[in-house]
Q: What sequence folds into this?
């Protein structure tokens, strides 16, 4: 009896694999939107008379974009509602931006200063899409790998030195590995896309794609010992040095991305 059930299961698996109608698919997409940074900080400023208030550090919102290439297969389904399931590997580029702001003073006036760390990052992820004819919904996950970057600031009181890694305008991969405890940023995402204006040639079809996306990035955790080491001292001009006591005890962040998707997709026909 057990052997008979075993043979039946093998037959069903072979039948399912044989009946699957799979076609290769790939696409090129551009995500254009905005990103909101959320910060979690613990600071101690009691011993210092800084003209900036470290306790007011918070995430800012800014425009961003991503360039993504997706490749995979579509399992075509003969159904009145669901017409396919697409499994895709996605790779791409993101100018991953950590944008923060804080209050400061100059000549008795209060200002809002902004620090920004731009990290050129490689995207690697997977996404599954449920296709309803021309409309699709996708759920995906992946990781951003920062490889280089730079930091900028409009804090004129500190000669435009950012309060995060200020002594370097350019960051290489070694700097990033030192700046963050784990220098990778995992993410999850949801997409909704509509394919239109199909163009067929031979055994392939090209579609233009318009959609929206929502992406949550878990961020990276700063190594506060590095932040404390490179925080500028309040001198004229500002100097970089190690303090007797720490200012930063914790500095984590995450970000929420949202926007529109533009692209083209290519699929082999049955």
A:
């Amino acid at each position: 009896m057990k052997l008979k059930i075993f043979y039946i299961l093998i037959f069903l698996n072979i039948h399912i694999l044989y009946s699957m109608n799979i076609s290769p698919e790939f696409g090129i997409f551009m995500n254009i939107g905005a990103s909101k940074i959320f910060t979690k900080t613990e600071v101690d400023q009691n011993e210092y008379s800084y003209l900036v208030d470290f306790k007011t550090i918070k995430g800012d919102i800014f425009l961003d974009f991503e360039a993504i290439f997706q490749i995979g297969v579509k399992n075509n389904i003969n159904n009145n509602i669901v017409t396919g399931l697409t499994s895709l590997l996605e790779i791409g580029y993101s100018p991953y931006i950590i944008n923060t702001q804080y209050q400061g003073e100059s000549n008795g006036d209060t200002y809002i200063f902004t620090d920004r760390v731009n990290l050129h990052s490689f995207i690697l992820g997977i996404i599954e899409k449920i296709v309803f004819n021309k409309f699709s919904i996708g759920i995906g996950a992946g990781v951003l790998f920062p490889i280089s970057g730079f930091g900028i600031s409009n804090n004129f009181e500190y000669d435009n030195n950012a309060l995060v890694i200020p002594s370097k305008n350019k960051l290489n991969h070694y700097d990033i590995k030192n700046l963050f405890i784990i220098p990778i940023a995992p993410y999850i995402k949801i997409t909704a896309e509509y394919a239109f204006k199909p163009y067929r040639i031979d055994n392939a079809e090209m579609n233009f794609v318009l959609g929206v996306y929502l992406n949550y990035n878990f961020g990276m955790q700063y190594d506060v010992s590095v932040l404390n080491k490179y925080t500028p001292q309040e001198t004229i001009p500002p100097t970089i040095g190690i303090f007797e006591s720490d200012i930063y005890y914790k500095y984590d962040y995450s970000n929420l991305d949202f926007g529109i998707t533009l692209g083209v997709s290519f699929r082999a026909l049955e």
The CA atoms of residues 113 and 261 lie 31 Å apart. Confidence is low (pLDDT under 50) at residues 5-19. The longest helix spans residues 2-19.
